[in-house]
Amino acid sequence: MPRWKALPEELDPQVREFASQLRRLVDRSGLSIAAVADRTGYSKTSWERFLNGRLLAPKGAIVALAEVTGTNPVHLTTMWELAERAWSRAEMRHDMTMEAIRISQARAALGEFGPNGPAAPAGRGGGTGGLTTAAPDDDGPRDRPYVPAQPSSGSGRAGNRTAPSHPGAPSPGRPGRGRRRTTVFLAGLVGALLVIGAAVLLTDLGGGGEEPGNDVAKSPSAAPTTSAPELPDGVKCFGADCTGQDPENMGCGGQLATTTSRATVGTALVEVRYSKTCGAAWARITQATAGDKVQISAGGESENGLVNADKDAYTPMVAVAAEAEAEACATLTTGTKGCTTEQ
Predict the structure, then answer these.
(1) Using CA atoms, how far apart are residues 185 and 191, in angstroms rounded to an integer?
(2) Distance between CA atoms of 306 and 290, rounded to whole angstroms?
(3) Of 100, 62, 40, nearest in space to 253 by CA
């Protein structure tokens, strides 16, 4: 079964060539994707996307890969710059295509109402093309100002004339707005006083009448504390919760891990990898042979790893209180054994 999946057909030729070059570098180094992730500080998922052409690697990842594989970073960066320009052009074409699709959909939606748009309701004056501010027939037009009726020329008793009723003017038999506002205010005030009275009553029930010796009962109990610190985003365990877990999957590797001790056993390199953020350590072996074994031990706990065709392996984690507690040992297929020493 081939190690790499076929690159997407729609990739730009320069992006395709760059992704192929990254694959060749990883193959030539003999490292697995997990080992590349651990040494470069970028996650395994990110490297899978970089190497399969689904995402363009950032420049920092390329420089880190050059250091890990012993490649000249200048040449690799030049290829990255060309691929980055091609990737940007492809994204621009995609954005323009999506914008054209959205415009076409908007035009098609507007076309459903006809060339003049949706029909407006007819106004009271008989017109059909304009907006109207007229209310329903029983309310009268709202855009017509109220004008009090004037006394006729034949009568001198203007006080006997009554103005026509209008929805906005209060009638003599109906309470005015001022009275309604006063009623609402008084109701709100009464409600607020009731809430305050209930609060005072509850306070008296909880704190009154105690004996002098009962003051201790008022002291709040101390909140339980935990030794685990607040973990950063992406980190899923700390201390004992990390024992037996994969450091890559738990977010403890990459930039959060350092090598605290190492040893050369035969042709293999054995290291203790420690993450202070996770409070855990694990063993890593590189330049090994399929079948070689590696083990991490700390505080009576131990975890094992087995080298496969990738020529490297790492163990699950064990919890440690300090980096000096952990020890990594290797047993090669040749029978050679060895353990790490502190740096």
Answers:
(1) 10
(2) 8
(3) 40
